[in-house]
Amino acid sequence: xxxxxxxxxxxxxxxxxxxxxxxxxxxxxxxxxxxxxxxxxxxxxxxxxxxxxxxxxxxxxxxxxxxxxxxxxxxxxxxxxxxxxxxxxxxxxxxxxxxxxxxxxxxxxxxxxxxxxxxxxxxxxxxxxxxxxxxxxxxxxxxxxxxxxxxxxxxxxxxxxxxxxxxxxxxxxxxxxxxxxxxxxxxxxxxxxxxxxxxxxxxxxxxxxxxxxxxxxxxxxxxxxxxxxxxxxxxxxxxxxxxxxxxxxxxxxxxxxxxxxxxxxxxxxxxxxxxxxxxxxxxxxxxxxxxxxxxxxxxxxxxxxxxxxxxxxxxxxxxxxxxxxxxxxxxxxxxxxxx
Length: 339
What we know:
Structural class: alpha/beta
Radius of gyration: 21 Å
Strand content: 25-35%
CATH architecture of the largest domain: 3-Layer(aba) Sandwich
Strand order of the largest sheet: 4-3-2-5-6-8-7
CATH superfamily of the largest domain: Vaccinia Virus protein VP39
């Protein structure tokens, strides 16, 4: 599971170099430095960066603005292929006739390949290509007869044979089926004492929280994620499973306290991000553990699935009795009982 890479610093951003962008409003995905300079709208689904963009005074939204048109759209390549394809499709759809699509990203994110994909899909070569600081930016004049095709939403199911599908929007974790770590934790719920009030931190499309509610019929749940796209998926999936009266999904970042009274949850389920962009990082997981420790009451449990190589136990031991209760393939399940 991966978290977002931080937005590129404006001083290192090749898209802001002279001659790349027009002096006109812009629709910018996963950043706001171009909007700060030229006006327009930033599309920032990750809550932490959304709040920063808002504090800067830029116009910002967590979702693509419906019906708006811009003379240029800037897409910053992300780690996930399907999410970037969705951004490119939205960016093209939001262009005014004769508008420009600007695509930028680091070399280690495969920007060269993305420039070739856009050229092929949109039947046009870039008329401007610029390199700097191990990154590249390309500008395309888009003919609306050849927009970038939108990817279909993914679908997933809970493990255990339940055939009901969970919708997974492009860019949301586990779009091509339930991931191995989540599947292991779902199966492990049979060994976890029933909880009355469940916290699903980093809920994604809702697999863990929904599995807990299906197993513990009297439980309620609060399901939180930093990605607005994931929250929208979870809300939809709760309706599919007829669980809308027993659970809430909210947009939340680990820099914020968990909504509700401290100690009010019996169980926290966590499949934490192990990467920030393309870099292995435990920082986001550590923040989530601290917030879970605040939210779960004495005697309650944190149940975490993680890569076996990630050293989470020292941090978790500060929250209570910590032990590895299962190892399966490349994963481990850690339980912490709050004291």
